[in-house]
Specification:
By secondary structure, the chain is of the alpha/beta class. It is 40% helix and 16% strand. The chain has a domain of 137 residues: Alpha-Beta Barrel (TIM Barrel), CATH 3.20.20.30. It is built from 11 helices and 11 strands.
């Protein structure tokens, strides 16, 4: 494995975009190598308090840093027609060659119900995602696209501002069917921290899909986002996670819940024990090193870390001094 990347996860649900720009610049100075930015219309809970338009912000990030960056993740086909996402992604890659990635996912009602369309069941959401990927990739090739599909229409669309090389398309997946499709049809996979057995299953399916398409899975990026809570004491780390990221303790499917107020009501039931194996909550930075190292050893080449509490400056400084330098990429 080549030298990996420890990335900063920019949480647009929690922070003002100007502050996130400052945090990202500090992260780069501290040794983080990339930024994965969430694409939300709403925060999970009203108290999280923010939800800026990530596409405006990424242009500013590209100018302000030299890091790789992309969405983690954008759902095509609801708020955004896939042709518009293709234009947005091509523009960023044309401006910042080799630095932008388009991270896509199936979406959540929390953000996508706002357009007033029927929110489909999970299999249909995956159908829509795959059809969107096909449209985006054809547009990235500079072709005139005419498409009459099951879910989308495109009428004589062509991108005139194109990068020298199309940005990579990565897909966030947590199930075996989509993991195989991701390997077969896209450039890399994004997933979140989970039990070893599940991660190995997803990577096996991803590899199988890649090989079926004649690709070398070993050369394809495997990106993982992990949730942590860093503080001066363990108690503060736990309190920060429960207060600022209660959705991290909700161990059930959340894609069909529409409103931040509904999550806020459920947050009242969340207890610290609900975060076990979902958010690493500790002041012990050696434990953070071991946590990330375990995922590196499982084969992930890019690990994006989301500190779920409010104190981003202390997290960035601590990781820059004590965690990133002690990770071993083989």
């Amino acid at each position: 494995m080549a030298q990996g990347i420890t990335g900063y996860a920019a949480s647009f649900e929690q922070f003002h975009p100007t502050d996130l720009l400052t945090y990202s610049k500090r992260a780069e100075q501290a040794g983080f190598g990339a930024v994965m930015a969430s694409d939300h219309f709403h925060p999970w809970t009203p108290s999280q308090g923010q939800s800026a338009f990530v596409w405006s912000w990424m242009g500013a990030l590209g100018v302000s840093t030299q890091m790789k960056f992309g969405t983690g993740v954008t759902p095509p086909g609801y708020r955004y027609h896939p042709a518009v996402l293709a234009q947005a992604g091509a523009t960023l890659e044309a401006m910042f060659p080799g630095r932008f990635f388009l991270g896509l996912g199936a979406g959540e009602a929390l953000n996508e119900h706002i357009v007033g369309e029927y929110w489909p069941e999970a299999p249909v959401r995956l159908e829509r995602l795959m059809e969107s990927i096909e449209i985006i990739q054809r547009l990235f090739e500079g072709k005139v696209v005419k498409h009459r599909g099951k879910h989308f229409n495109v009428e004589s669309a062509r991108l005139y501002t194109l990068p020298d090389k199309a940005p990579p398309v990565y897909v966030a997946t947590s199930g075996p069917i989509m993991a195989k499709r991701t390997g077969k049809h896209t450039d890399g996979i994004i997933t979140v921290g989970a039990a070893d057995e599940k991660l190995k299953m997803l990577m096996d399916r991803f590899e199988k899909g890649a090989k079926e398409a004649g690709k070398d899975p070993a050369s394809m990026p495997r990106m993982l986002q992990v949730k942590v809570s860093v503080a001066e004491t363990d108690d503060e780390a736990v309190e920060g996670a429960v207060r600022d990221w209660p959705n991290g303790g909700m161990n059930f499917p959340k894609a069909d819940i529409r409103n931040p107020e509904d999550f806020e009501a459920m947050a009242k039931l969340v207890r610290p024990e609900n975060f076990k194996n979902r958010v690493l909550m500790t002041s012990n930075l050696d434990e953070h090193v071991g946590y990330l190292q375990h995922f590196i050893d499982l084969g992930f080449g890019e690990i994006y870390v989301h500190n779920v509490n409010r104190n981003q400056e202390a997290f960035i400084e601590a990781y820059g001094k004590h965690v990133i330098p002690n990770l071993t990429w083989s």
